[in-house]
Amino acid sequence: MPLFGRLRTPYGDDLGPSLPGGCYETGRQISQGGRKSGRPCEYPRMGFLSRKSKPASAPPEEPHPIVEELERMEEVVPERPVDESGTNGSTAAPVAAGDPPPPAVAEASSGAVPPAAPPAGETSDDEGPARMKAEDLIAPSRHEGAVEDAEAEAPAKHAEVLAFANQKGGVAKTTTTLNLAVAFAECGYRVLCIDLDPQGNLTMSQGIDPDKVEKSLYDVLVNDMPISEVIQHREIDIAVASIDLAGAEIAMSTKIGRERSLEKALKEVSGDYDFVCIDTPPSLGLLTINALTAASKVIVPVQCEYLSMRGLVQLQNTLRMIQENLNPDVKIEGILPTMLDSRTVHAKEAVEILEENFGDLVFKSRIKKAIKFAEAPVRGSSVLKYDPEGNAANYYRELAVEVLANEPA
């Protein structure tokens, strides 16, 4: 038996000469009897003699569940019958002799291509009710609803809130609040006055006794009563005060958001008036802070004396803190020289000092001293009603014109 034969696969492939000991040439070193001979192989391993495992046959692909579902839907939905005339199953009306052929027949005879049929869900006007489109079945989005609501809602008009403030007492804050409000009313504006002074001088100036009112601004600020319940109608509408307001600051000390109590109360009636005039107490306490927080503009009455002007610096500091923390939109509308005695040099010097330091903030109008301002509250009326033709009334009419000129159109 020859030592060297030829190795063949069961398929008849010739692998080359075999080696002694049943060995064969491989891609590695020649193996003989479990020992390495050191000679590299010249023939690569092939066929079933390779140690590489054959790849397993892939299992047959199964159809995807979605494909099966679509096939079932196609079987359930029948196809729409289409006749040879291309009219989607509609029966053609007989054509009488002498009548012109219908457009479809004329186009067919002329060889013109008929227009494409409308897509599914759309029908012509001659056919029955059209099928609903997919977009018709979809509910409107929240954005569409928001646009409709924005178009439907008209911007509400709010009253201009004017606060008359100065921690110095006796500078004609109450007199200015009442008479300027009545001057606005003479011009056709709807005006509300608010008496935040515990002394109740504004309430008394309209003939109302503060000691006899059952409901006052104390109930509005402390007990959250609607402000409409404390409004009384006189020359102008007035939210009355009582001596109870003296204890309002202590009662509100533990209330959350106490600085905004008046601002929240005014929202109820803000659309009913054009102007709201607030008379403040002669201090920079919680009641005055409520007025400055609710106001959009501040008018500062200043007596033409040295001590009265010193309070402007403190008021400016308080107003700056209000702007930084509570009401960034509030601003000083103007400084009003009051109780001016043009006969004295001191009064003229005081006005010059105001104009040098505050410039255009000082109103051109001047409220001069007049005995009518002291007589009018005794009659329970404003000076414009008590003496409508006098100089005192004209002072505030001029001031009203100047304030209205600064209002936006």
Structure in words:
With 409 residues, the chain is of the alpha/beta class. The chain has a domain of 246 residues: P-loop containing nucleotide triphosphate hydrolases (Rossmann fold). It is built from 15 helices and 12 strands. It has a 7-stranded mixed beta sheet with strand order 8-9-7-10-6-11-12, sandwiched between helices. α5 packs across α15. The radius of gyration is 49 Å and the shape is elongated. The termini are far apart. 28% of the residues are buried.
Summed up:
The chain has 15 helices and twelve strands. The protein has 409 residues and is α/β, with parallel strands linked by helices. The strands form three sheets. Strands 8-9-7-10-6-11-12 form a seven-stranded mixed β-sheet, sandwiched between helices. It has a three-stranded antiparallel β-sheet with strand order 1-2-3, with no helix packed on it. Strands 4-5 form a two-stranded antiparallel ribbon.
Unreliable stretches, pLDDT < 50, 5 or more residues? 21-52, 86-97, 104-109, 120-126, 146-154
The total count of helices amounts to 15
Number of strands: 12
Helix content: 25-40%
- Kindly report the CATH topology of the domain at 160-405: Rossmann fold
**What is the molecular shape?**
elongated
Write out the CATH superfamily name of the domain at 160-405.
P-loop containing nucleotide triphosphate hydrolases
Cα distance spanning the termini? 125 Å
User: Beta-sheet strand percentage?
Assistant: 5-15%
CATH class of the domain at 160-405: Alpha Beta
